[in-house]
Amino acid sequence: MAAVYSGISFKLKSKTTSWEDKLKLAHFAWISHQCVLPNKEQVLLDWARQSLIAFYKKKLELKEDIVERLWIYIDNILHSKKLQDLLKNGKTINLQISLVKIINERIAEFSLLESQRSMCAVLSCCQGILSTPALAVIYTARQELIVVLLSQLCWLACRQPEGAMVAQLFEVIHLALGHYLSIQQQQVNPRRAFGEMTGHLLQPCLVLRHLLSGGMWTQAGQGQLRQGLSREIRSQIEALLQGGAFQPELLSSYKEELLDQQQGDTKIGTMKNLLAPMDTLIARLLDVGYCEPSLRSAVIANSVALLYKLFLDSYFKDGNQLLCFRVLSRLFGCLRISHLQEEQIKALATSDWTTELLVVEQLLNSVASNNIYNIAADRIRHEEAQFHFYRRLAELLINHSQASVPAWFRCLKALMSLNHLILEPDLDDLLASAWIDAEVTDFRTKKAQEALLHTLFQTYVKLRQVPRLFEEILGVICRPAAEELRQPVLASGPSRVLCECLLELPPGQILDTWSLLLEKFQSLVLPYLQGDVDMALKSLSLSSLLHCIMFNMRSLDSSTPLPIIRRMQCTMERMLRELVRPLLDLLLDLQVPELELWLQKVSDSALLLSYTWAQVDAMLSINCSQYHSLSVALTDVATEISNLPLLLPGVETHQWKKIEKFTAQFDSLGRYCLEQLYLQKMKRTLMQTNFQSEEALRTLRCDAAYILDSGRESLNQRTRASWDAQVGTVSALTYPVAHWHLIVSNLTILISYLCPDDVRSLASVLLRTLPMSKAQEVSADEEPSITLEKISNSILHSPLFPEMQSLHSAFLMCLTEGCTSILCSGAQCDPSLLNQQLPWLFEKDHMMVALWENRFAKVGPEGVEPKGEIAQNLLSLVKSDFPIQLEGEQLESILGLLEVISTLQLDSLLTPYHVHYFLLLLSMAMIKLGSSCSSSLTLKFLMTCYRLLGYLQRGKSARSVLKIMYVSDIFEIILTSLFKASSRLPVNMDDPSWLEFLQVIGAFLEQLMQMLIQMKLSLVLNFGKISRFLHKLYTEAIAGKQVENQNCRGQQLILVSLTKLCQVLGPFVKERKQHHEAPEALCELLQKAVLHTGAVLQLCWAQGAQDHHLPSIFISSASTLLEADVGQHPRHRTETSQMTDEMTCSHTTFYQSVYSQLLSELPAFAEDSQCFQAAMRFLTLFFLTPELHPKKDSVFTSMFHSMRKVLADPTIPVQVIQDIEPHLGALFTQMLEVGTTEDFRMVMQCILQGLDVSNMWKADLQAVLSAVTLTKVLLSSPLSGEKARLFWSACPQIVTALTLQNREACQEQPVLLAVVGPILDLLAALLRQGEETISNPHHVSLAFSILLTVPLDHLKPPEYGRIFLRVHNVLFSILQCHPKVMLKAIPSFLNCFNRLLFSVMHEGRQKDKGGTDDLSVVLECARLVQRMYSHIAARAEEFTVFSPFMVAHYVTEVQKVTLYPTVKGLLQEGIYLILDLCIEPDVQFLRVSLQPGVRDIFKELYNDYVKYHKAKHEGEKRYTA
User: Fold this and answer.
1) Concatenated DSSP letters for 211-259?
2) Percent of the chain with pLDDT strictly greater than 70
3) 0.85 surpassed by pTM
């Protein structure tokens, strides 16, 4: 055979053999072991290579398909395991340069988009060569080949290809970059490296990096680029650029070029011809045509920032600051904005400005962070070269204002931080373009503006030149401008900044600024106000500034120096006399027939200053005893008979009336300030001693009424405007919000002085402005603001709301009226008749409803019991035809009101409100619903009604309802209504919303019956009526068995009702029987209820429940029936036979059927918590009733195997298994108590089989997990006697099995954390509970090997937190429960503990990128480490010898990272406790033996220990007995 195949090489070269046959022969020859060609691998590779060379040199004609298959053939060879094995064994395969050149040429063609055929195969060949070191040497040995390849690969990527080849292309680029970087690092000729980089690689690498940085190809999808690979390639490109352009040997060339220095180092003779490296870089960067015009400017901009960063990383050090600046100025010249002033090119688009300003920001931040600009050095040594550059940049930015771009503000902020003198010559223009005249709407831009203004104000605060700054601000405000186009001067951002600044200013500077403002106002604005809109708007801006200054300055107090107080007094008098009063006089003196805008703005300004003055005057008079309030001094006693305070001193009441009449014509800031004045007046009145006099009370009521009436109409507009809570931004649009905010903020003052009508008006506004849908969360990119809905929602949820009883009562009445109006809109009878049938709907006062208690508490004449009158009335309405029917829209409206009701504290309502709301909600639950109401909406409505009724009846006034209605009547009304409603409800019986509805109904019915028992309200009478009513429904249900269209949902309602009756009555009767107090009648009622429940259950079962997934309601009913059935019979052995007969006669077969179906469906129940819990309860009861057990099979075995089936089911998530574990444990505990020793042996055998390591080898993880979970459940059960002995004798085998399982799980990639976590939990539990029973120290020591195997790195934060906690728990269990073993294995213990410590340090380090979202997990782990340190320190005798080594480990590791302060603080507190164990020789030993860098860390740590910890500890010792 070998001879036959040896002719293959001749056939491959033969011209007569077809290319199809040649390719087949070549493929066969490669894979066949029978082909014995000498040097076969090289021969076959050479044949394919020569064929391709001949084709591409036009010496051979081949079809495109054959060419592609030749490439694929070479690719298969390069990637074959056979070739890799040959190369590993030392065989040499020669690729030939010609093949590499063909590959480079093809990639060059692809990059020019000339041809795309065979691209994937060629790239794969290239990847095969580069990924195999023995083959890649052909590229690395000829450097020009790898340079050409890398250049063409980058150009190919820059063409932005798509599809599956993207990932392959970037893998090849990644490999090529790696090889080139290794060559570059070994390059001894820096000139060559620089030439290669700038000549071939600079442009494609910069374009590619720009595209990668922009997120190109990294979107999720097939054939896209991984985020990690994108980051790696970007970092490789940066390393390539840095290694080529900024080598240490080139520093002298940069200095020679940029600093005009002569080369001083004669050793670098080779560098003399390499001139102007910066010019070369910039020329290549600014070349035209190497990328698309649309990308060019963005590529250049991003490259400028990158090149400057790389230059600083390479060359920055003390002494090179000027060089770094020269590079900055040269690179800045590459940006288009640098030529705006010179060439006056047309304005750039906003997107271009954004891109270039972001780069400028990065450049300026680099200057600041590296201290490149030293003001003194620049002035003394360099003739302010840097300063002049930054001045030109500042002029450029200010002259070309870009207030819509956040980076523009940040650039100005950076310049201000460098030196305030850079911007000071243009300070007025800066203030105008960046603040006063800036139109800023975007939230991010507002934050940038705020940051700039903050830096500006803080700078001038430090310089003590705030008055100078304000002089510029006032100059800008007062200069001629189109005021109507200006935004408010003090929006929320600037206002916050100014407030913060003012708090830091001394009173003297505040008063200087205040006086300056008054002077400007008086001289430049006040004389020209009349008829001038612009001046009026300027006056409002100045007033806002003055308001901000006066409201946010530091208050004076009695310790303030007297000259300051006197100056303040004079300034206040001057302001009132020379500014406030003239403005008010202007309003009072003018007789303008029409309302003009200028007059409105003047009134806003006058009233804002009046309110500000009054507020500050009051504040000063309270806080500073030396300040004399001008409100008293200037009051004209002749004009005012009353001694109550005025709104403003010197302004008479009739004048205020005129102003009020004027401001009432429009919603504006003036009206809001007038309300504030009245509020201020109320506060001053309440501070007087005679505030309870008749006159004072009358004044307070008038003032409160005015405040409320002032904005009453505006609140009817239902505006959706938002307000930033700044006085200066109140306008016609935001006035309703500001007015409502004022009222709600001061409700505690106003509410006592409002008349009932006003209170009702407030309540109606509150209800009307509440959000009827779930509020949306405020985005991080949105400015927080105030709206009507937010204000109303806040008061609704305020704890003060119920305390304001008049408002709370009015609000409850408004809610009632709202519900009633919707109900009446659906009335199907005459309103007067509806009033007779449901009178509580039309009651306007809750107190009237409460009077029914007294009327119904008395028995009427002729044996009629009035207490049942309401119930009988409702029952007759339900049975006949309820007079109200609602459609879909009406139902949604009423649901909105019910949502509001649900937010109120219904359980704390007073009796009248409680009764009224109970009747209202009960009436709503009984209404008919039209055809437009969907089943989901109907169920939601009914559930809401019954949940609220239940919440109400858990309240303190629950008994008041039972004074007008019997529980049995309520029960009958509800069930009759629901029975009728269910027959019309188009919903499936297994629909989750229907099952939830049944639970809600059941909970409310159970609550009603529990009330009977708790309050002992005629138990026999009420339970008797309930039982008779249910018997009637039961009879109808049984009678309807043969009817085809029977109401199955009604049967479920009966089942729920009977179940709850058994559930409530069963335990009560059982308890009474034990005390021999059970009434015979209640026992009979319970017996009937059990029989009826069983009959209905079996009816439901017969109708097909056994063919479907059993609903939780069915299982719960079966459990309750079984419990009640068993509870009726005494559990004495002498009566077992009688009980068995009775049970057999009743429901034994049914119970066994349910038991069988539950066992078969148990895995399906696992993900439904309620169903599973109900199933566990039934199985527990069934197991504890041996009389029901089938005689054929062991119930214990069947249940146990069913539990194993649940735990071993691969479709059930791990989290679900953890959730159901407690429920399984409860059942298992009962099984173990009753089960025999043989049963227990069977359990142990199954557990040990599951823990066998062969399951892990077979990848049967579920078998392992089920065994681990069963062992945990077993440990949580109380074991004694023979069972305990059996378990603990198997414990060594379990620990050994866990060790093997853990080792296998940790060797898998990725680590099987789903197995490791439960193993650690089980190990910790075994160690804790085996404290006295695990006798062999070896088995405890095995825990250390498990802990050392568990990985703590490369985990996601949540996974890390869970694994860390489990490892800590095992370690802590050893420390606490097995001290003798730990004493002999302290090194192993410390190794495990150090792994925890080091992992916390690694996870808690400050990372370059990313936020601190996951820090909470690390902090919790750090607390556990600190706690473990404290436990170690508590065992001083055992650990004293090891304490210096623990400290050494700590400082050695902490030196490698920079920890977050919170993490470091926790770890230091722990290590201080170990330092307490160190004696002086230990400290000296550490100082001598530690490495120099680590020694410094230890020195700092020990100093902190002595200063903070030891001093405190010794201080505490002094007070210790």
Assistant:
1) HHHTTTT-SSSTTPPPHHHHHHHHHHHHHHHHHHHS-GGGHHHHHHHHH
2) 89
3) no
